Amino acid sequence: MKMTLTAKNMELNNRLRTQIEQKLRRLDRTTGDDSEILIELIANASRAADESHIAEVQLRSEGATVRSRAAGATAIAALDIVLDKIERQIVRMKERPRAVRDRAADEVGVVLRREAAGTVEVEPAPGRRGPSVVKIKRFDMSPMFEEDAIARLEETDHAFFVFLDAETNEVSVVYRRTDGNYGVIQPVIRR
């Protein structure tokens, strides 16, 4: 792990550097070898004795950046607190599922392949909790303007209406807002 250490209003002696390096070893088990950590120690940041030192840490590991800040009576005490926070953030980040857009792209691909094969499953997948798809509707879409889509929405008791926008030739959604007006959702596909 590459470390950059700076200090404000205090001296960085060899003893303090050694202590900091020992404290950072506990992050080795949760971060990669190519990780980079920036540590800034600030003394006399507050008049209160128990918050007179601040440690700010920024860790870049495996493409992600984690930041935290903590105060303590000494620089080492503040560093201990901030490293606890950083470690919890790293663990949470690793346990969290992949980014939503990655997950959504994977799910869309799976559904499209199953649709092409004619094997769209209506039952919930094993191990999956919560609501499931119980009905699939398919309908032909002819291009229409937003005003026409609002009129069609008014004919139904639904909260939204999916339509093919005649101006953009894209699929859009018109929905009824709680204030009595209407909203339009126009998806943007990022490539």
What does this 3D model show about the protein?
This protein is 31% helix and 27% strand. It has 191 residues and is α/β, with parallel strands linked by helices. It has two domains: 94 residues, Double Stranded RNA Binding Domain; 53 residues, 2-Layer Sandwich (SHC Adaptor Protein). The strands form two sheets. A four-stranded mixed sheet has the order 1-2-3-4, covered by helices on one side. A four-stranded mixed sheet has the order 5-6-7-8, covered by helices on one side. Helix 1 packs parallel to helix 2. The longest helix is centred in the middle third of the chain and has 21 residues. It starts with a strand and ends in a 6-residue tail after the last strand. The mean pLDDT is 81.
What top-tier CATH class of the largest domain fits best? Alpha Beta
Q: What strand order characterises the main sheet?
A: 1-2-3-4
What oligomeric state best describes the polypeptide chains here? Answer: single chain
**Overall mean confidence score, pLDDT:** 81
The DSSP helix count reads 4
Number of strands: 8
Rg, alpha carbons: 27 Å
List the helices and strands and how they pair.
Blueprint (H helix, E strand, L loop, with lengths): L1 E7 L5 H11 L11 E8 L9 E9 L2 E9 L2 H21 L4 H18 L25 E2 L1 H10 L4 E6 L5 E6 L5 E4 L6
Parallel strand pairs: 1-2, 5-6
Antiparallel strand pairs: 2-3, 3-4, 6-7, 7-8
